[in-house]
Amino acid sequence: MKALLKLTVLILPISFILMFFVLLTDDTPYPGADYDVFDMPQFQLKNLQDNELIFNSDIQGDYIVNIWASWCITCRIEHPYLMNLSKQGMPIIGLNYKDERRDAIDWLEKYGNPYETVIHDLKGTLALDMGVTGAPETFLVNNGEIVAHYQGEINPSIWADVFMPVIDDREMF
Amino acid sequence: MIVEISHFLSVLATGLFFLTGCFSLAVRNTSYISNLISRTYSHAFLFLIISFLIYVWLAITDNFSVQYIASHSNSDLPVFYKISSIWSAHEGSMFLWIVFLSLWGFVFNLNINNDEALKPKAIGVISLILVGFLIFLLVTSNPFSTILPIAPLNGADINPVLQDPALAIHPPTLYLGYVGFVIPFACAISFLLIGDSDIQWERLVRKWSVASWVFLTAGITLGSWWAYYELGWGGYWFWDPVENVALMPWLAATAFLHSLSVSIKSSHLRIWTILLSILVFSLSLFGAFIVRSGIIDSVHAFANDPDRGLYLLAFISIIVLMSMFLFIFRFSVIKSADNIKRFSKESFISLNNIFFASLIFSVMLGVTYPLIYEYLYDQKISVGAPFYNAIFIPITILASLFLFISVDSRWSRSINIKFFTKPIVISIMLSIIATATIVFLFNTKVIAIYLSIFFGLLIIFRYLIEMWNSFNYKKYINPFSVIAHFSLGLLLVSISFNSLLSSERAMNIKIDEYEEYKGMKVYFNDIKFVEASNYDAVQAEFYIEDSAGKNFTLNPEKRRYFTRGQITTETAIKVTILRDIYLTIGDQLDDGSWVVNIQLNYFIRWIWFSAALMAFAGIVLVFSKRKI
User: Fold this and answer.
1) What pLDDT sits at residue B299?
2) Which residues does residue B530 pair with via DSSP β-bridges, in sequence order?
3) What average pLDDT does this structure show over B493-513?
4) Cα–Cα distance measured from residue B271 to residue A6, given in angstroms and rounded to the nearest whole number
5) Which of A9, A16, A29 is nearest residue B328 as measured by Cβ atoms?
6) What is the mean pLDDT of residues A49-71?
7) How many Å apart are CA A155 and CA A160, to the nearest integer?
8) Count of domains observed in chain A
9) Which of B293, B321, B372 sits opposite A19 (nearest CB)?
10) pLDDT tens, B205-221?
11) What residue in B sits closest to A71 (Cα-Cα)?
12) B289 touches chain A (CB under 8 A)
């Protein structure tokens, strides 16, 4: 009986420690990244610039969707990198998230517009369907299918480690 | 320059704690050694506390050359929040955590006589734990690192949800509770190290354990209250991972206090008590690990850094495994009385400990299972309220039943419990009548709620009768036990009423219109834009007329803070004795109406009151004249 107690007393903490060790070390270095594949949700929202309705069919092929807002400080930080990507010819769709239209347009005029199209998602409905928790977040879309998702600021190393493997794998762009 | 002094002092303290620790564990005890250890500990503590006070001073005087202060404080903040900004993120809060740990050791050092056989080794254990955490602080999360050559002018800002008085005091209270359990832990370890079964370490740590338990109880209660009105969660408990991580040490500590009193009274359960003292402190450390390793996402989780997680895991593993090995090797030394008598107080407390152990295990499972599952199946799942309710409700009801029966039991005596004594019959009758009335009034089919109301009332009435007897017939009662268990009854009843009566609804209202809800008329009077020094906000004005014809206005807000761009919801709450009317505003819809969420939270203040009363019971014991 005592031997059993002794054994339990040792094995229980050791197994917990091992488990946490495995979880900590195995964890991808980018906890904001996930690779769940699902269809780009259906939406019917307005284009930020011309206030015209915009649908799924208006954007096709391979592109990235960047969730941003004028009130979001981190978006300001990742903005230069997005400008850079767009100069290299990367099609970026902006999803303006829970933002006033006027503020958003001012922001783009002030800092520059890296986006091909900006969808104005005032209530965050499309963002909700996509599983967005905040801004900034970035999605990689391959022929109408979301194939990679990153929560947080993207920069060259995140681009190289999180998105490039998928892009190469699927031979996108 | 001042930063460097502060930094240097804490490094010095680390060295001195290291010497104290090694020395006390390596050298055989004499009164000379014992005095020496006591003094070196005090000096090391002095260095550390001065280092911390300088740090506080740096925060007050807006010294933004310190990186941590620059990124978490702001020159516009009131002094109070400049200080509390220190524990608003990882580095500073870890610093505070360590300072509190050393403070407990210091107070223990001052209060316990140097002749006490356990003391030098206990101080040594505390010192070595401090060394581990100080190295963690200085190496992986240094709060002293500076921004050179040019310091920013204004600093960033403290997270707006943390700019709140309850939050400023909630973490320190909780930390005091967590780290306070280092005292029973260190004493248990030095008891095992010395290996003399006649030393009664249990008596020594009783009041210290109760004091830590008081802080832990108060800290959890404050946290619950803060989440309710500041985070806008609208309830008292959410089974959030970090809430659970605080609940586990609390459950273990409560079990420990029970088992401790058995060991003191009659030398039963001594081995189990030692195991529990190790468990309580390990669970406190586990909490620090969960929150600071970023392994679980939660409102409380700090920025993610795998190195920190690994260091903490390694250090905590060393502490836990070494204690467990020591426990196993010294197992046979501990003399514990066998054969607990049937229906004695000891027997009921053993039963209570089984209940508590199952609760701790279940919470642990709930916290870790999503992690295991995600690792094995690469899918996220969440374990939420239904799981915990399914386990807590039956166990709590069962435990309450045994608590009710146990009131008449005696220490070390097996008396046949009479079920037809006056107090038992009266409390059963009263509870049946009250519960029947409630069943009649509120027609729900959830039997668990009625059961917990019934057993909660049973406990309340039973202990009220005890208090009455003590007043009128001078019957001896233990005020700590009576008040604490009475609060438990109150807590059960309040929680049951809360889930029975509370309701909420989301409404769409336009300005100048009104909605009716549960006999109340909610008029939407006005909405305006307000600008404050560090945020702007939309503030709504609602005029509410309740069924009794009383009326009042409520002003919920949505704020946007400039520095971080963060949006927060400011709830508006009308507090009455029985219920809170809780209002939040959401977004504006296309037709111009606003989404307004209204909640009626019944008995929610009673829940916190019960928890506070429970903590108060502990204060009564700590300041009572009883030796143990």
Assistant:
1) 52
2) B537
3) 89
4) 11
5) A9
6) 88
7) 9
8) 1
9) B372
10) 999 999 999 999 999 99
11) B565
12) yes
B571-603, pLDDT tens digit by residue? 889 998 889 998 888 877 778 888 888 989 999
Percent of chain B with pLDDT over 90: 50
State the SS3 of B230-288.
CCCCCCCCCCCHHHHHHHHHHHHHHHHHHHHHHHHHHCCCHHHHHHHHHHHHHHHHHHH
Residues 260-279, chain B, touching A (beta carbon < 8 A): 275
Cα separation, B264 vs B257, in Å, equals 11
State which residues form the domain around A48. Answer: 32-169
Q: How many CB atoms sit inside 10 A of residue B162's CB?
A: 20
Q: At B608, which amino acid appears?
A: W
pLDDT confidence of residue B301: 54
pLDDT tens digit sequence for B241-286 = 888 999 999 999 999 999 999 999 888 899 999 999 999 999 999 9
ipTM for this prediction: 0.77
Nearest CA in chain A to B308: A24
Nearest neighbour of B565 by CB, restricted to A23, A29, A73 = A73
> Does residue A41 sit within a domain?
yes
User: Is there a domain that residue A10 lies in?
Assistant: no
pLDDT tens profile B29-50:
788 999 999 999 999 999 999 9
Cα B213-B394-B610 angle, rounded to 5 deg: 40
Cα B503 from Cα B579, distance rounded (Å): 11
- Reply yes or no: is the peptide bond before residue B149 cis, omega within 30 of 0: yes
Closest by CA to B121, choosing from B41, B45, B179, B178, is B41
Give the phi and the psi of residue A10 in degrees, each rounded to 5: -85, -45
Residue type, B249: P
Closest by Cα among B47, B57, B45, B144 to B94: B144
CATH label of the domain that carries residue A38: 3.40.30.10
* Tokens describing residue A166: 């998928």
Give B-chain residues touching A22 at CB under 8 angstroms: 375
> Over chain B, what is the mean pLDDT?
88
Q: How many CB pairs under 8 A join A and B?
A: 61
Sequential DSSP letters for B582-606: EEEEEEEPTTS-EEEEEEEEETHHH
Give one DSSP letter per residue of B523-558, joined into a string. Answer: EEEEEEEEE-SSEEEEEEEEEEE-TTS-EEEE--EE
- What domains sit in chain B, N to C, each tagged with a CATH number? 1-163 (no CATH), 197-417 (no CATH), 503-605 (2.60.98)
Q: Is A127 exposed, middle or buried (0-12, 13-18, 19+ CB in 10 A)?
A: buried
Within a domain: A120? yes
Residues near B149 by Cβ (< 8 Å), separated by ≥ 6?
none
pTM of the predicted protein model: 0.82
CA atoms of A117 and B403, how far apart (whole Å) = 67
What residue type is B44 in one-letter code?
A
- Tokens matching residue B129: 């734990």
DSSP state letter for A163: I
Give me the pLDDT at residue B417, please. Answer: 65
pLDDT value of residue B427:
92
Is residue A83 in a domain?
yes
